[in-house]
């Protein structure tokens, strides 16, 4: 299971159990460097330019998706440290059968988890995963095939989905809110500041909540910098850059 530990300065680092299949051999020289710091040009070892990773989750209620006591995965997005994004960075790697890639790699438990917690409300799950990979995954520099000492086609996509799932499991949004007495309700409203405070306290950095239909909470952005290649699993919670909430001061958090 993923673990979370304190680092210098009191911040939290998330350590994921998955290991990278074959990174650039000089990564040991950059092991203390943090993405978005601008301190390295070795893009196989330090994610650049997309060094601010946003783990994005949905609270879908109309139609509802996923378990009634859990948010679901939207994606893992490499923000260029300034609020901008690169997209679809390598069309030659726009894989269209993530299910097969994960199955062939022996990651059936990850695939099963995704069928419950990484689901779409308007297209097939496979189409959703294909989109997230080609739009965002192909823009993660440390997942470039040239960064692997050995490489099989699609291996980097397997690393992307496995890492995204592991990271999601360290971010139990529903539980963190419930622990603060904030649970879904058809009638009660909540102060946005109370949701933000509960989540920041649990996560270790400010988060961004988004609303639809004016005041219904439906999405959250968690921000991270990384140390080393993405699937090394060293994620450091940080405030999001270039993204702001669209929610009013009082919000609804309806049940699924």
UniProtKB/TrEMBL annotation:
For this protein, the Enzyme Commission number is 4.6.1.19
Q: Which SUPFAM superfamilies match?
A: Ribonuclease Rh-like (SSF55895)
The residues the entry assigns to the signal sequence are 1-21
An annotated Gene Ontology molecular function: RNA binding
Which positions are catalytic residues?
74, 132, 136
Specify the domain of life of the species encoding this protein. Answer: Eukaryota
Q: Which GO terms describe its cellular component?
A: extracellular region
Note whether Signal occurs among the keywords: yes
Query: What biological-process terms (Gene Ontology) are attached?
Result: RNA catabolic process
Classification via CDD domains: RNase_T2_euk
Q: Which UniProt keywords apply?
A: Disulfide bond, Endonuclease, Hydrolase, Nuclease, Signal
Q: Which family does it belong to?
A: Belongs to the RNase T2 family.
* Family matches, as PANTHER family: RIBONUCLEASE T2 (PTHR11240)
- The name of this protein is ribonuclease T2
Tell me the organism's taxonomic lineage: Eukaryota, Fungi, Dikarya, Ascomycota, Pezizomycotina
